[in-house]
Predict the 3D structure of the following.
Amino acid sequence: MKAWRVHHIGEPREAMRLDEVPTPEPGPGQVLLRVRAAAVNFPDAMLCRGEYQVRPPLPFTPGVEMCGEVAALGPGVTGPGTGARVISSAALPGGAFAEYALVPAAGVLPAPEALDDAEAAALHIAYQTGWFGLHRRAGLRPGETLLVHAAAGGVGSAAVQLGKAAGATVIGVVGGPDKARAARELGADIVVDRHAEDFVAVVKEATAGRGADVVYDPVGGDSYTRSTKCIAFEGRIVVVGFAGGTVPAPGLNHALVKNYSILGLHWGLYAVRDPEAVRHAHDELTRLASTGPVRPLVSARLPLAEAADAVARVSEGLTTGRLVVLP
């Protein structure tokens, strides 16, 4: 089979190489998937650079989530049946940018019928992260104001849709007019182009000075720091990632004085510590996909040969919505 592999740490276009490798055989507790679609994520670039919290041994195949078709079951695995369409996180070092991938049977979930392969692949991590961040961590309530950074990106676009589905007023922050149009199409009530406007002033004006009840921040750096200037009394800042490249050092005295909470979110821990909660979230996301509020914004569907370039483009912040590779 064909599979992209990282043979040395570096930038995606240089580090990733398309190889011919043996098709793996599933062992106990494993499922072999024929990859139908693999969504590109910012962590794929971090894996190539050796900057992610997980550092698989070289060579490894990046690609952290997929929609696939069950090709074979390992010994003792009873389901889902061969041919079933499913979604799953990858089991590194054997990631999703390949024609086949081995995944743990316990993490395989049915692909929502309302979504095509590319949309289903893009649903998994970003929307699970959004669900846990907004509902389990921040307790977002109807009528509250949600501020979403990188609102036209993969993680941010999911938060915009989930915030609207929860009955919140959503303010999306983006970089550039194309991304502003995408955020409006996703349903954001107010869109701020950070290149042209100060989101702090916009939030304060939109909330009559009260501030945002929840901030969803996958960017870090200055986005986080400035968010503390427009967070509401008893507001909640959900720290999702640091796509801006800088990990902020929060002033805890400021959190004390303004009575707001700083909440960390590492979704992968739920798959280990509370898999039942992951399955419950998937059921809710499937319901929202079937009724309409949730549909991943897939801006491009690309052949396997373009996976390395797609990872680089996402890491450079040059995309809106999701890029999906179709092996």
